[in-house]
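ok so I'm stuck.
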Amino acid sequence: MRFQIKDLLHIFLLSTGIFLFVIDLFIINVSLPTVQHALHLRNSDTQWIIILYIIGYTSLLINAGNAGNHYGKKKLYLIGMAGFTVASLLCGLADNLYILLAGRLIQGISSGLMVPQGIALITLRFENPEKRSMALGIYGSIAGIASVIGQLLGGILPDQTWIHESWRLIFLINVPIGVVACFAVYRYTANDQVYVKSAVSFKPMVTLFTLLMGIIFPLIMGPDLKWPIWSLLVLGTTLVFVQLFLKKQRKLEKMGYPSVLNFTLFNNRVFNLGLLAALAYYMVQDAYFIINSNYLQNQKNYTATMTGIAFVYQGIGYVLASVMVSKLVQRHGKIGVLYGLGIMILGFVA
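replied:
not stuck anymore, here's the structure
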């Protein structure tokens, strides 16, 4: 079964959201030392550039599906894309840390709006299960390719000499892509059905954002300030509120009301093990990118371009493995996953 050119164009168009989100997730890892030097930032400042992007995205993600049903998936996709584009311009023109951080937070919030709607619109467009599966496969491949492109551009763009403060290009490059995507989606993507009765609550999103900030803020600022008593109090108090929040959400689920989590999933042992494995993997991977980028550029005197190229090889391996892993797991079961883990550990040791 083949796609028509029109179908492929729609897939690429609706994948622009995840493409931009992933690019900006990876592009900053390589270029962070250059940004730090240009704006005279402390190490804790640079962490906020990454963290606010992720927190903004995560906080919106939990209710984005219901919001798409209530307000319209196409409408939210356009709002998210427009917000991401404006935020990218704000980051690219920022002359101090606070403007840059505000732009990154808006980028993350906008991503939380547009990424879920993009995949939902693809699902709606292709009713045939086989075509839908192929379309989602292309969507996933675009996300993987974006991770490679992001690392490469994160190295190449800050080293450009034809423009002053060329690190700004890592954000400004999103602007023309976002403008074209907004126009094309508005013009060529059909409107979806709106379900006004679908419940949308902003309170859980605000609560989640506040709790995440309450955990991360003292963890980032504590080491720089030699762990003042207020940082420990904030961290301890937030953990108590996390417990209360989860307890309330569990109670809402038992009573049949909407909750931010499906707690029945945690009764599944395989799900819990998979969740822990994913948590451990992403903790190591994200820390690896940041630490290794700083190490190569600040200790080994690599240029940003050299660092980006070094990371590209890993990204290519990631994309290839993503294509192969489903067949390996079907044939060898969990042994295939353990092989991958072993290869990753050997790579870290080397």
